[in-house]
Amino acid sequence: MGAFLALGLFQGAVYGLLAVGIVLVYKAKRVFNFAQGEFGGVAAFTAFAIVVGAGLPYWVGVVGGLAAAVAMGLIVERVIVRPLESSSRTIMLVALVGVALFTIAIIVLLGQPIPRVMPPLISGGGVNILGAGILPQQLILMAVLAVLAAAMAWFFKTDMGLAVLASSQDTRAAQVVGISPVAVSRLVWGMAALLGGIAGLLYAPVGIFTPGFMTLTMLVPAFAAAVLGGMTSLPGAFIGGLAIGVVQNLGIYYLGQQLKVPGAAELGVFALLMLVLLIRPQGLLGKEA
Hints:
It is a single chain. With 289 residues, this protein is mainly alpha-helical. 73% of the residues lie in helices and 3% in strands. A two-stranded antiparallel sheet has the order 1-4. A two-stranded antiparallel ribbon has the order 2-3. Strand 2 (127-129) and strand 3 (132-134) form a beta hairpin.
């Protein structure tokens, strides 16, 4: 069981990174960002092309991948989000789903739908934690999650962070005191894309990856993590991600291996969501409307 618990924490860290990006956009725009996973996909495939394809140093691939993810986020904000600002949230949601599907199609066309293996940032044997062989890449993932959690907490105490919060609560009032909604929108989408890119770069070297891997395997659990933590709570998104990862893996251990129940991981997550939302409909750290 210890091995499943440890693996769940590391998998949950990826969910947490994506969930924070989802919550960040939701707090500012009140829309569910279904393109969040593809920020990570673009970062991973760009880094792969630079490191493996071009043979350049790893750090160049990391910088290039994050730059590609942020550029995508800013393009989506300018081309999709801003023109649809006055439209219904449903139209915005459908447009963002379209962005994700379009991005996957472009990656398939450019890189072919074949599995790839990204070399890890630090190679070497695994570390035994609770009976599980944990790769150095997974330890880096947890360290990055902790650093980003502290950085986000600090950011929202700065003037820029307070401007984002003010704009999300009342755009007109924020404009009156000199806060630019356009600048805030760019910042939010750039930060969300950066978080998605970091998640993709950290997760890709753990195994093989294919076009759409972040959207197909990570996005739904990340949304569940955001809902579990509270759709307006950034700390809740971090905690929700870790909780979803742990429950998924413990579900596989108890329900899948012990009781032979099919769909054990999904059943465990569903039960956790129902339990928390019945007790606290606003999520673990969310606030009541």
